[in-house]
């Protein structure tokens, strides 16, 4: 991903999201409903904090991080504006997180895997920092699900947005399972860019550790 692009785009991100309908807000609520009240949650690649701020009221703590400092500042400001004192913000690379093994009860990475050259590395890091019985919640646009979404993707590509890959809903679930996850639940939110939210766990992780 081009960090300079996301630094420039941070101030416009929320406005751009509004043009895509309410799927992201619905997905954030869906994710929040699946997090335990006493959970410590990671929101990796937090953007401007949509998911972090949706998760925080029902969690013990949310660690929100992004590799673009301008995005982190937007999340910090949004959490402060909403009075969410349990949101901690930091600059992190989702493919090389500084957090300890088993630090989180759950982890979220929303709308980022399709942007990465090596999404497998991000999944490995999310699995590492999440407890063996923890949940990974992985919302992602599945633009290949519709011709209209692919046309929209090409349109916004003119502004510098260039996803590394485009999945269908089935293709995205298959990708997650090919990388050691069991998708326990998923929901497809229909919008200009269809959004699939998958809730998954790591296969055999506890056995590998033992």
TrEMBL record:
One of its GO terms (biological process) is methylation. Residues 42-138 form the Methyltransferase type domain. InterPro entries: Methyltransf_11 (IPR013216), SAM-dependent_MTases_sf (IPR029063). Coiled coil: none annotated. GO terms for molecular function: S-adenosylmethionine-dependent methyltransferase activity. Gene3D superfamilies: Vaccinia Virus protein VP39. Keywords: Methyltransferase, Transferase. This is Class I SAM-dependent methyltransferase. It comes from Eggerthella guodeyinii.
């Amino acid at each position: 991903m081009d960090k300079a692009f996301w630094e420039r785009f941070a101030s416009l991100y929320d406005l751009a999201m509004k043009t895509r309908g309410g799927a992201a807000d619905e997905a954030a609520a869906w994710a929040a409903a699946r997090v335990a009240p006493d959970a410590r949650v990671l929101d990796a690649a937090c953007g401007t904090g949509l998911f972090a701020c949706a998760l925080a009221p029902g969690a013990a703590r949310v660690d929100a991080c992004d590799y673009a400092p301008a995005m982190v500042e937007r999340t910090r400001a949004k959490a402060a504006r909403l009075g969410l004192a349990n949101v901690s913000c930091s600059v992190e690379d989702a493919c090389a997180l500084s957090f300890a093994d088993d630090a989180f009860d759950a982890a979220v990475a929303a709308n980022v895997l399709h942007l990465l050259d090596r999404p497998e590395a991000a999944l490995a890091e999310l699995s590492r920092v999440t407890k063996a019985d923890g949940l990974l919640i992985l919302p992602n646009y599945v633009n290949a699900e519709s011709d209209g979404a692919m046309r929209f993707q090409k349109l916004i590509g003119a502004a510098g947005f260039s996803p590394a890959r485009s999945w269908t809903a089935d293709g995205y679930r298959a990708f997650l399972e090919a990388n050691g996850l069991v998708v326990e639940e998923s929901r497809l939110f229909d919008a200009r860019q269809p959004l699939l939210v998958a809730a998954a766990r790591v296969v055999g992780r506890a056995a590998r550790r033992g």
